[in-house]
């Protein structure tokens, strides 16, 4: 079955680093911020590796544990062959799983970590997610300094990395259950409108989750989607109404909330790091929402297939959290 | 909901792009670039006593140099994203496309990076420029001898 209840698995610690644009955004208390995109490295790619290393080193320090205490390292990023994660993992002697589901990565990591943790009495699992705006621009779009004009549906890849420690020791964030999503392709070919690509996948996993857990959409205080952006969020709401006859009121989108409105970030932030940055640095700290459904949304976009006029498939996974 | 219905829904909810405003900005900026070019060419002819054809070649080199320099100094991308084709269509855009590609791969090796990616964007302009140049040349011979 795609959905499963999880017993006694918790997010017990996290450490985040954010880029210069994110520093000016709505979240003021990142653990670390970078003043520039190079982070004292030679290239953006190497900067992202260093970001991942920073969040791993610091979460170990903060949790007062050693490398050898970690059972698994699960990492994800946007680079081709998830190279950033692999290079970062090579510095640590920890069994490593690299995952790719684009911007749905954080939820996929939590799902895999929950499954692994449930079979153990005591465990420490480290999940790392990162994205780097200029690394992603270079890989998926135009050269960085080209500055190609973009439509208002475009999203802006967030720069940051976050590590979370998953354990069986009770903490204020409990992973209560999850639903593994299905790949959905609604025929959208526009790589500049990722919100439209991902919205049906998000709707599908939300509905699957509610049906499997026999819950109503109002059961959750908050449904937090990853990076649909302003346009994608509108589409999701309308799509849920038209296709499933469900009215979603308790919704926020991490991507739409990350930056201030005066920044030139088009429809909002994207990237796998947007969801955990906003969830852990803002939503959890607010202590306003207790039952939260996080829905990572990933556009499984490959420039080669887009050039071949193929439509873009999307994936979305849902994780139910209980926050005290 | 099937794919067609969904695509209609997306079309309905997508924000409309201000095409007219963008076209007007591109027209005015493009015109301004050409105007500045003409002024420089006139100065080259009157002050430096150059022949008109030579002056235009110098102007072309100068435009490419200025655009590349501004790209390298990291100004030009902000202007391009605001002015669109006003800066992309003139030679400034051609130079900018090559410089920005080069900056992207400056650490990826001289052959595997710089050499192979230099014309990533400009390659299409060159290829189709040469092809259309050939066909217009043929047409020119047919009609004007």
- Structurally, the number of domains of chain A stands at 2
Strand content of the residues of chain A, in percent? 15-25%
- Biggest interface and which pair forms it? A-B, 28 and 32 residues
Number of DSSP E strands of chain A: 13
Enumerate how many helices of chain B there are, as a single number: 8
Summarize the structure.
The complex is a heterodimer of chains A (324) and B (145). Chain A is α/β, with parallel strands linked by helices and 324 residues long.
Give a verbal description of the structure.
- The complex is a heterodimer of chains A (324) and B (145).
- In chain A, helix 2 (44-63) packs across helix 3.
- The mean pLDDT of chain A is 94.
- The longest helix of chain A has 20 residues, at 44-63.
- Chain A is built from ten helices and 13 strands.
- The two termini of chain A are 28 Å apart.
- With 324 residues, chain A is an alpha/beta fold.
- In chain A, strands 1, 2, 3, 4, 5, 7, 8, 9, 10, 12 and 13 form an eleven-stranded mixed beta sheet that branches. Chain A has a two-stranded parallel ribbon with strand order 6-11.
- Chain A has helices at residues 20-23, 44-63, 83-89, 105-118, 133-140, 194-212, 229-244, 254-258, 274-286, 303-307; strands at 3-18, 32-33, 72-76, 96-98, 124-131, 156-157, 160-167, 173-179, 222-225, 251-253, 269-270, 291-299, 314-323.
- Chain A folds into two domains: 3-167, Stage V sporulation protein AD (Peroxisomal Thiolase, Chain A, domain 1); 173-323, Stage V sporulation protein AD (Peroxisomal Thiolase, Chain A, domain 1, 3-Layer(aba) Sandwich).
- Chain B has 145 residues and is mostly helical.
- Chain B has one domain.
- Chain B is 81% helix and 0% strand.
- Chain B has helices spanning 3-13, 19-47, 52-72, 76-83, 85-88, 91-104, 110-117, 122-144.
- Classes of the chains: A alpha/beta (324), B mainly alpha (145).
- The interface between A and B is medium-sized, with 28 and 32 residues.
